[in-house]
Amino acid sequence: MQQGVEMMKVDNQATMTLKLGLPGLLRESLKIFHKNPKFIFFTFLTSIPLFCTMLPHEMLFQRALMEAVATLTVRTESTDSIDSPTYYADEQLRTIEGLVWSMSHQFLKLALLYLFPLHVCDLLSILATVDSASAIYAGEEGTDGVKEMVQRLITRTRWKGPFITSIFVLTMSAVILFEIIFIVALSYYAPGINLSELLYGLLNAALYAACFLVLFKKWLEWSAVWNMGVVFSILGKRHGIEALELSAYFSNGSCRQLGFLLMLGLFVWNLGLRLSCFLLLHLVGRQGNQWTEILATSAQVSLMCLGNVFKWVTFMVYYYDCKNRFSEKKIHVEEASSV
């Protein structure tokens, strides 16, 4: 009964909130940190396991990326003088096969590290962030101190539903990412461009670029829907496919575009951090040592964890904003039908 009353308080808070655009979402999210500074320390504590598991994962990823770039650079230089398009394509195919074979053990390590420890620690951070941020946003009691937030996380937060939903999200996201990687690999395998094949090369590049952009845009849009589905699982009683279906239903229209912008901003943030770290380590090269790699990657992972916390606070506000938009739209439809 008490839990139902608290959920009604949250819904009332969401109903009173006006429809928000992207600046409004960011502003409301920042207000949560300002309203309860202890929430910052709480999210810092719950992000420590995520940091500890993400650090070796990112170090392995950076090493695999540098090894792949080095391999592709050497192979590309060796095929630059080839004039035959057929032989060039065969060499490109052999390059991809050799790269996949040589990097398979690295990607296996990354996959295993991501599937269990990193995914579980990420889910812990998500649960702690979304549940406490929602309580602060709604003005509920029991969120005044870190101790109360920890007790709330242990005793009142749902774990099973969000875990099931996150498995669905992880699977679907992996499928889309593999499709994007496949398109990139196909574009690399395409025959080389010379003056006599300029038109073919341009058309080929335009085709792969269009496929990549369409799939990339859909991936960002669907990621926003999937993330809100996780929020549905934490704050509601639905989980799995049902939570994702509700998320897609509530996020139609302008909410879908807003979710795309949120995910695009997050993607740019993470990509910028990874590229900055990669370029730094690449420039340092042999002059650096293991400590340089650890410090650079630690700074990158720290900022990624910070972005992850802000992401889920924003998606919590986005969840209520979409519900508010949907309720308002439903009221307008009922009023129009009654006229």
TrEMBL record:
PANTHER family: T23E23.1 (PTHR36714:SF1). The lineage of its organism: Eukaryota, Viridiplantae, Streptophyta, Embryophyta, Tracheophyta. The chain crosses the membrane at residues 39-57, 163-186, 198-216, 258-281, 301-320. This is Uncharacterized protein. Keywords: Membrane, Transmembrane, Transmembrane helix. It comes from the Eukaryota.
